[in-house]
Design goal:
The chain is of the alpha+beta class. 35% of the residues lie in helices and 22% in strands. The protein folds into two domains: 260 residues, no CATH class; 186 residues, no CATH class. The protein has a nine-stranded mixed sheet with strand order 9-11-10-12-13-14-15-17-16, sandwiched between helices. Strands 1, 2, 3, 4, 5, 6, 7 and 8 form an eight-stranded antiparallel sheet that branches. It is flat, with a radius of gyration of 34 Å.
């Protein structure tokens, strides 16, 4: 590892670097401070570089499998050093070809993945002492834009076939991952069966139909495989593709020689980032990717398009999250070259990581907010299932229903806490103010998620929600055949049941207490259309008059009593603009 070398040893020792799809050829200049190559500037002319170039065959084939999607596993497959990994994490390295596999991460936690890696090398090229002893353009040393020169290149081809299988929450994740692993590792076995039809069981055929494939490689194909069977056909061809076109081999690995050994005026790599600090940076980036996968799963939930309040909160979270991750990468990219060039100490990177850990974007707080969001989704989903067959509307849909001339009575089951202010989202936005990364004391940006009790954590709210659900379902079931009565599920702590008549009348459930009232209290029968079957309960409603804008104004409050008896439902009008409901 470059990070383990002392500065003196580092300055005089050649370095191995993965090419990662970059056009790195013998004689090209390279800046190890930023892990970037310098195009168009060389120490030798084209003729000098081509003469006496030492070329020899280097034939080797490798096949590996990986069920991990971590950057650590991907770096191991691509033989990426800790230092180059740090540059990739900071966005300093633009990868190409097969190395684009580094950017291919799982987008969901409901996704199993197995990667098959095929590698083949063909030749090795290196400069000789003839070139090193005859510098054509010595002025390059004075420019100090590069620290090393590419003196050797290993050519070949690499191919990654990424197999994915998505699954539902009801399916067994471990079973699916095991089956996917088995099927991918069978590809080499299937390929030796020849050109005849692949022999699979019915269960295997059904399994491979659910598997998708993504190809990343330096091999030029007419069409990239997207299915398991197409990947199987490609695997059979891989050994011959490179042999048929050896000139299409690309740089796989390069060796860098320090320029200051050729001229002491050249720039040097003064120090490297310690392996432990690179590992800490990687852990943070991995945690952010995990949070993004959880967010993706939440945003794909069908309830997002039903409850606009939740959709807005998720959008706010995503916006802040994306901005923060971009800023974090830029900060890492800013300090890495300066540390390697001797202009900064490692503490500069340590401070950036410290600010992250003390910020509201740290792993613990991100995951807690996302887990709370999952809990909220789970509760809403369970209530929606209990209200199967009943329309779910937002406030705009509610207004449309209330103005339907064919509907003169609406009973609404409303989620009342979804629009509550979210202090955590406010903290995320506040943390993104300018110059945050220059402040080590960020305690003011912290917010204790535990101190903010969620509405669904309150047992009293849970109890009230269940009572409201029971009342709403009994009324809905009893009146489901009446086209003039509409029951809807809306989302204006917990839930409430509201009744609307002729657009402007809102009857809102205030409380429920057990109390049996004799049926002789109802003397005047007015209507017998509204009915329901519930336990004997005394229900108190509130009468509210709303303006045309559907906002509360000119409020008139009256108490309306709904009493359930053993008789069929009736509506009594003991006084003007009042309603009493009797359920059996």
């Amino acid at each position: 590892e470059r990070g383990l070398l002392g500065s003196a040893a580092m300055a005089s020792k050649p370095i191995e670097v993965a090419a990662l799809g970059r056009p790195l050829f013998p004689g090209m200049l390279y800046d190890c401070r930023s892990d970037s190559f310098i195009p168009g500037v060389t120490l030798w002319d084209k003729k000098s570089l081509s003469e006496d170039l030492d070329t020899r065959p280097q034939l080797q084939t490798d096949l590996k499998f990986s069920s991990s999607d971590s950057l650590s596993s991907k770096s191991s497959l691509l033989d990426i050093s800790a230092s180059l990994k740090a540059s990739f994490l900071g966005g300093l390295v633009e990868v190409g070809g097969s190395a684009k596999y580094l950017h291919d991460t799982k987008s969901s936690n409901q996704q199993s993945r197995v990667t098959m890696y095929y590698s083949e090398t063909s030749r090795f090229e290196q400069l000789t002492m003839t070139q090193l002893g005859k510098i054509t353009y010595p002025r390059v040393f004075d420019q100090q834009t590069a620290t090393h020169v590419v003196t050797a290149v290993l050519y070949g081809a690499r191919a990654f076939m990424v197999f994915d299988r998505t699954f539902s929450e009801e399916e067994n994740k471990q079973k699916i991952e095991g089956e996917l692993n088995v099927m991918v590792k069978k590809i080499p076995l299937f390929s030796v069966e020849g050109k005849g039809a692949v022999q699979m069981t019915d269960a295997e055929k059904e399994m491979v139909e659910k598997i998708t494939c993504t190809f990343h490689g330096n091999i030029c194909l007419e069409q990239n495989p997207t299915t398991y069977m197409e990947a199987l056909d490609l695997y059979k061809q891989l050994p011959t593709l490179l042999k048929e076109s050896p000139k299409k081999a690309v740089p796989i690995k390069v060796w860098l020689y320090p320029l200051h050994l050729l001229d002491n005026k050249a720039a040097q790599l003064e120090r490297e980032i310690s392996t432990s600090l690179v590992s800490s940076t990687q852990d943070i980036m991995d945690g952010l990717e995990e949070a993004e996968r959880t967010y993706n799963d939440l945003s794909r939930n069908t309830l997002v398009n039903v409850f606009s309040d939740i959709k807005e909160k998720l959008h706010s979270f995503q916006e802040s999250f994306n901005i923060y991750r971009t800023v974090l990468r830029k900060e890492v990219a800013r300090v890495l070259p300066a540390i390697r060039g001797g202009g900064m100490e490692e503490k500069s990177l340590e401070d950036i990581l410290k600010i992250y850990r003390n910020s509201p974007f740290n792993d613990g707080m991100l995951n807690q907010w996302l887990n709370d969001a999952k809990s909220e989704f789970s509760i809403l989903s369970s209530y929606i299932k209990k209200l199967e067959g009943i329309k779910t509307e937002d406030s705009h849909g509610l207004i449309t229903i209330l103005h339907d001339p064919d509907i003169y009575f609406v009973v609404c089951f409303t989620f009342t806490s979804l629009k509550n202010e979210d202090l955590y989202l406010e903290k995320l936005q506040g943390f993104l103010k300018p110059n945050t990364f220059e402040k080590l004391d960020v305690e003011e940006n912290m917010v204790s998620m535990a101190s903010v009790e969620k509405w669904f954590s309150d047992p009293d709210v849970t109890k009230k929600m269940r009572e409201n659900l029971s009342l709403f379902r009994c009324f809905s079931e009893a009146n489901k055949d009446d086209k003039h009565i509409q029951c809807i599920d809306s989302h204006h702590v917990g839930t409430t049941v509201s009744a609307y008549k002729n657009v402007y009348i809102l009857v809102k459930l205030i409380s429920t207490t057990c109390k049996v009232v004799p049926p002789d209290h109802c003397n005047r029968l007015v209507d017998n259309k509204v009915s329901g079957k519930c336990v004997d309960t005394f229900i108190t409603f509130t009468y509210i008059h709303l303006a045309d804008t559907f906002m509360q104004s000119d409020l008139q409050m009256r108490t309306i009593e709904a009493i359930k008896t053993n008789k069929r439902a009736i509506i009594c009008k003991p006084y003007d603009k009042s309603l009493s409901y009797y359920y059996t």
